[in-house]
Amino acid sequence: ALTYHYETQCLPTPGAWFAHQLPVWLHKLSVVGTFVIEIAGPLLFFAPLRRLRLFSFYCQVLLQLLIILTGNYNFFNLLTIVLAFSLLDEQHVGYWLGPPPPCVAAWPPSLSRFLCSLLELCTYSCFLLGTVRFFGLEIQWDKQQLDSKVAFTYHEFTRWLGTVTLPLVGLAFLSLSAEILSALYRCFCIRGCGWKLLATVQWAIFKAVGVTSRVVCQVPFTYIDYESNGKLWPGIHRMFNAVERFQMVNSYGLFRRMTGVGGRPEVVLEGSYDRQSWTEIEFMYKPGNISVAPPVVAPHQPRLDWQMWFAALAPHTSSPWFTSFVHRLLQGKKD
């Protein structure tokens, strides 16, 4: 897919040209990394160990930064990074803002610390072994490259989705419940009845918001497996339908299918003053003149240039706005 993606995406960046020149085996390895980060990585969002959550945070941010460098997807990647910041805690952010406090490692380590380290090691080992197993990683010493391939079928993947979707819903509720109880305990530890009451009121408000958003977001989350979506408690669907118009939660996937494998279709607009000589109308952001480097426009969303890419993928009937656009051009409407 990546051998086509960089030159056929909506609004490429100058970095996309360099990424397009990478060898095929590295493109394939990039797809493997994307699959691991976007499919297996989010499972660590709810991990009980903070270092596993930090690991998933940096994986997500790395992927989003690489996408920003190789494609103009306006604010989508920045939104993902902002959401990923919820995986951090005050202690880790403190490392960014100032020198870390001196840390003296205790020896021998306590049993809980040893078990946590063992769990981390097992998790990283599962990630590595799973990647090798499901993507057929193999070092080719003669060519000095790392070969990879998808070693599972579509049906195996959908069966796996059906197996893990509902348990993930339960894991999310357990994680949220632990945070709620921990926050309530901290409220009771505050000195003074007035401050305790104020903290408890704040806790109740945030708890209500958190639980409500967590409940209703299970509906769009389980869209990835419709059987799991049908098994949700009907009350959750009723709550989602009641607030759906406010767009509090949603399911958004930018590109669910690969396009441009057969080339990059383009809609070319030309104008003429004398109806004899015609000149192509250059857009501000979308690729046109191949002698000009593509611009960097993110996080701006050039709506017209963005939609022109989609207009080229289907008949004009699927883009009714295009007829109005040409009509306004013929009328000479500057805006």
Automatic annotation (TrEMBL):
Does the keyword field hold Endoplasmic reticulum? yes
Using the record's annotation, list all stretches that form the Lipase maturation factor 1/2 N-terminal domain.
1-93
Outline the extent of the Lipase maturation factor 1/2 C-terminal domain: 248-335
Q: Which residues cross the membrane?
A: 29-49, 61-88
What is this protein's record name?
Answer: Lipase maturation factor
Family the UniProt entry places it in:
Belongs to the lipase maturation factor family.
Q: Which InterPro entries match?
A: LMF, LMF1/2_C, LMF1/2_N
| Alphabetized Pfam families for the sequence | LMF1, LMF1_C
Organism of this sequence: Upupa epops
Q: What are the record's GO terms for cellular component?
A: endoplasmic reticulum membrane
The record describes its membrane topology as: Multi-pass membrane protein
